[in-house]
Amino acid sequence: MTATAIFGARTGVGFHLARLLCERGEPVVAMLRPGADAGPLEALGVRVVHGDAFAPEDIDAALDLAAQGEVDVISTIGGRREDGRFADEDGNVNIAERAAARNDLGRFVLVTSIGCGEMAPYRSERAIAAFGASVDAKTRAENHARRIIPSATFIRPGGLRSEPATGRGILSEDAQMHGFIHREDVADLVARALRDPATEGRAFAAVDADQARSINPIEPFPLAR
Ligand SMILES: NC(=O)c1ccc[n+]([C@@H]2O[C@H](COP(=O)([O-])OP(=O)(O)OC[C@H]3O[C@@H](n4cnc5c(N)ncnc54)[C@H](OP(=O)(O)O)[C@@H]3O)[C@@H](O)[C@H]2O)c1
Fold it and tell me: Is the CB of 160 under 6 A from ligand 1?
């Protein structure tokens, strides 16, 4: 059975994804930072390894723990270190590089942000001022991952809310998409994308159908259930 290694599972989208995959009975490994409380994930059945995405050998240890056939690799990590380096870029680049170096890599999914890549020209001044630097760092990670893992999938959430799932999350390839989505719904979309090979090699905005806006008609990607 394919195992999934999640980077960023202590909180947010990554945690909900770990829960969903465990509920399906699938093996999940998560890398948490040194000292982080593994209890909530271990209670779900997740195997936890401690490490930092800035340390390639820590990523290898997590991927080795997951190895038992193919390994799907998911990263939701983001944030900035005290020295100014972005986990959004350097952490995700390290994860992509270590994943690409293996011969057991299955799917590679990077959770980035609305506004990445070809969406950049459609960002508002306010969005650029508030999170432009981190979104640009995520774009650089996407670009690097795409070069070394052509089948990589990029899921770019809109503004995240920590409210219960609505079940109304959609993926969209519209570069002008904006909106909001609940973290649990992003996790559900990632879990479904993992099962749908049509999502390989593509980038999607992830928004709630009822909290989405675009100047174009809203046409959800036909993601398998
Ligand atoms: N906030 C928004 O509205 C918004 C909108 C669009 C996209 N996004 C992006 O969507 C993704 C998911 O968001 P979220 O709010 O669910 O995530 P989150 O709760 O902020 O989780 C990010 C995880 O990354 C981990 N992490 C950060 N640096 C790391 C490192 N060097 N090594 C290992 N782990 C590291 C964090 O660990 P610790 O818990 O130890 O810090 C945390 O568990 C993030 O990339 C976020 O930037 C956010």
Answer: yes
Block residue for tokens 């079940």: 167
Residue nearest to atom 5 of ligand 1 (CA): 159
What's the pTM value of the predicted model, to 2 decimals?
A: 0.98
Q: Report how far residue 64's alpha carbon sits from residue 105's, in angstroms, rounded to the nearest whole number.
A: 11
What number does the ligand 1 atom closest to the CA of 53 have? 32
| Contact present, 183 and 102 (Cβ < 8 Å) | no
101: enclosing H helix or E strand: none
What tens digit of pLDDT does each residue of 15-60 get? 999 999 999 999 999 999 999 999 999 999 999 999 999 999 999 9
179 Cβ closer than 6 Å to some ligand 1 atom: no
Residue 153 DSSP SS3: strand
DSSP 86: B
